[in-house]
Amino acid sequence: MSRDRYVDFLRAWAIGLVVLGHWLITALVREPGGEIRAPELLATVPWTQWLTLGFQIMPLFFLAGGHAAGGSWARARAAGGTAAGWVGGRALRLLLPAAVYSGLVLSAVGICSAVGVDPNTLELVGWAMAMQFWFLPVYLLLSALTPPLHAAHRRWGLLVPVAMGAVALVTDTLVVAVHTPYVGLIDYVLVWGVTYQLGFCWRDGLLTERRPLPAALAAGGALAFAALITLGPFPVSLILVTGQTPSNTDPPSAAMLAWAVAQVGLCLLAAPAVRRLLERERVWRAVRPVGGASMTLYLWHMLPVLIVAAAFYLTGLAPEPALGSAAWWGLRLPWLLVLGVVLAGVVRALRPLERGLSLLYERTCPDPDFSRSSHYWLLWLGLAASVTALTRFATRGFAPDGRFPVLPALGLLLGTTLLTARRRTTADRNPGEPKEALREAA
């Protein structure tokens, strides 16, 4: 009853738009030789880049994540929890389903590679199954940084996201104007970290105690975005388009930061009306299952595309009008409906796996008061190995050049093993000492 239904709604809304957006822009073409290729809709039909303004909803993930993490860490800290225990628990909640998903996909890649599947086809499939992975290492890093970020929030409040945004703008200038290599990687943490930090501010009332602030964020962010794409060098697309320089997502640009700020403002303005709607139990019953299955939907939503491709495109049953034509758009509705039905079946089939992951999480999650120095460094090493491996999958896919990615696979295995290693705490050695308050707080 203490949960903020609006925050859960934002997760459900965001995941719904991510899935719908990825499905909408996915185009498949069967070549005369039987191979399947996926032409890039945003590059082939340039006007569709404007659609990304509605479907680039990742700022809401980070905003809701910051809101939830701020409350969770504050409760754990008040109950005597440690940063290592809290970070370990939050990381496992994200990493366990991602590791199982990766293990299953990598197993399929290994089998296909061994039986001689065409490397180009395998690379395409491996990319499709990893296209959403960029989010995971960034979110893991922000989760790991939550204790110091929240400490800064308690001391300086809104000045923290303002300072992060200012540094992000300087970094983006170096990327766009000077072409400084690698410095743009910082913006993955800074730009998305601004919305994550604003989640802290939102939870503590700093964004809503001044009535004009949400409107100012929405209007200011939208105007800045319009100026940056019309007068500045940035494209309108908020999703990566091959060959487009500079990009708004690789790394996140000043235009992406402006759009994220505008989304936060719009989210705050819509909150009262949506909260009243969510008080209706019928509406809440429709929203809650989507939020609860958000990680499953996010990870597995491209599998239906592969299933439908095999069933209808490899067999030649699917009609193939010209990409971007009226007939092609007309077929998008049955395409989305078929994918939705298949995804519902996939989610249902994965329920036993989800229950097993919940049990594994309970058995392996570090206790909130975990602080033993002998295991402390193993947790951070496991987190570093996992972030590195997931980043590799996000940038190269599960089958780079049509081959099995040995080193990233070993890195993810090592990271997951270190993070799931059972650690005894002081309370384990003294069974009479209660830990329920700490667990509930985390």
Record keyword descriptors for this entry.
1% strand; two-stranded antiparallel ribbon; 442 residues; mainly alpha
- Give the helix level as a range of percent: over 70%
Tell me the distance between the termini. 17 Å
What class do helices, strands and sheet pairing give? mainly alpha
Q: What Rg, in angstroms, do the CA atoms define? A: 22 Å
Q: Major sheet: size, sense and barrel closure?
A: 2 strands, antiparallel
How many helices in DSSP terms?
22
β-strand number: 2
Q: What is the spatial order of strands in the main beta sheet? A: 1-2
Compressed to H and E, one letter per element, the order equals HEEHHHHHHHHHHHHHHHHHHHHH
**Low-confidence sequence ranges:** 424-438
Instruction: Give the strand content.
Output: under 5%
Globally, the shape reads globular
In round numbers, the mean pLDDT is 89
Structure, explained:
The chain has 442 residues and is mainly α. The longest helix has 32 residues, at 83-114. A two-stranded antiparallel sheet has the order 1-2. Helix 1 runs antiparallel to helix 4, helix 5 packs antiparallel against helix 20 (406-420) and helix 7 (135-144) runs antiparallel to helix 19 (373-396). The chain is built from 22 helices and two strands. It starts with a helix and ends with a helix. It is globular, with a radius of gyration of 22 Å. Helices cover 70% and strands 1% of the residues. The protein has helices spanning 5-25, 41-44, 52-55, 58-78, 83-114, 119-128, 135-144, 146-156, 159-178, 186-203, 212-230, 254-278, 281-292, 294-300, 303-313, 326-330, 332-349, 351-364, 373-396, 406-420, 426-429, 436-441, and strands at residues 29-30, 36-37.
